[in-house]
Amino acid sequence: MKSTFLFILLFLAAVSCSTEKQKAITADFDTVQDSTSILFSVTRLSGPEAVRFDESQNVFFISNFNGGGNDQDSNGFITKVDAEGNTVDLKFMTGNGKLSPSCSKRNVY
Question: What is the value of pTM for the model shown?
């Protein structure tokens, strides 16, 4: 009985200590479009609302409300992030103080 218990305990310890590696997720068009996979987290955003991956530049563009979502104050901005999750330019595009096409409801074309 003791040997059976010891065998089960050793077996469970060996199974729980397996060194199975998780498959790394890479950013490409097929992965990021309509995906639930988390590639990375970006900090310092201000009301992020929409994300678009540009395959030709291998970057993400993230629209930021920067205030109330219904305010038409034109102070939102677009953040440019590389495929590894590094912020290339926090305020890649900014509002111009006037309502303009870049201040559309979704901010990303």
Answer: 0.58
